[in-house]
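User: quick one, fold this
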Amino acid sequence: MECVTVDFADPAFLQDPYPELARLRESGPVTWHEPTGQFLAATHAAAGAVLRDRRLGRFWRDREPAGRYEPFNLLHRNQMMENEPPVHTRLRSLVARAFARGHVARLGPAVAATAVTLVRDAGPAFDLLADVAEPLAVAVIAELLGVPEADRPRLRPWSAAIVRMYEVSRTPQVEADALEACREFADYLRRLARQRTAEPADDLISHLVSVRDGSDRLSADELVASAILLLNAGHEASVNALGGGLVALLRHPAELARVRADPSLIATAAEEMIRYDSPLHMFVRTAAEDVTIGGVRIPAGASIAALLGAANRDPAVFTAPDAFDVGRSPNPHLGFGAGLHFCLGAPLARIELRAALEALLPGRLELAAEPVNRPTFVLRGYREVRLTRS
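Assistant:
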């Protein structure tokens, strides 16, 4: 097994991580990364095994000092993504029961109408992220949860601050902002849940309040943690997938022409956007016992990171993996994860991506400036994508 020295904070790496990720794949399915003290799974097979092997899990440990990090810890110790069965099974079952009440199907027409309105109102020159992707994602999640219109502008800043805690490198100010966002967001959702308890509506918060499995139901902290997970995961993934995917599409004019000529390709184009420039690049799991992944022994207690962006360009699985192909099928990307923690909101994210493409593609669409990257790796995306449309 090779030890690798990739710098996840290097600006050149953050600008384009794929050449370095290819080098990691070529070094072996699993390598050791001394700076972060964890194993890295870079091939599709190894990353998939990390995501699916039940001996590898998410075992939440409160960040220390506990008093300082309690707002962050509270949200994570009570959410399904940071737990394994039986806790994960219970939480996911209860949230899935609320989801099963037709919320995703209900939102389809509204998502399409919102996307058309945002693109129309953006005018001939606009920022894809600020004017379309972010307000679309916020509108969809807010509508799903039942957040009143007047409160919706607060969601994006809260989400953006919280998810920066997941980066490999972060400053004390980033942490302070994230902790304050955790406090404010949790307090807001508790108030909203109390309102929905008194006056139920046809939204996910109302159903999370009332959902039961026999005598079991979500606690107040579990409800808040579940709602924030849905917003953070769904919002960040949708915004970053649309931003990175549309930039890729515009940089491949022949593929853009293909999907314009044949709108039935929009569904496969959306999947390719998620594969080609993955919005989530790293998902870390911990070994509950000794386990072998990619021929490498991972000792109990050790962490191993599935590098999803590397896996999604593995030539052992994808023909011409560095090419953007709007008709790619099959496309077994790992952009939504796999196994027990497969993204519960994947159907909603797909609806958003397809609706945005359908609204954006008519007419002439061009990059007005070089897109500006966000200086992050775990959650990869752009800070600004200026476009012109005619």
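User: anything notable?
Assistant: The radius of gyration is 21 Å.
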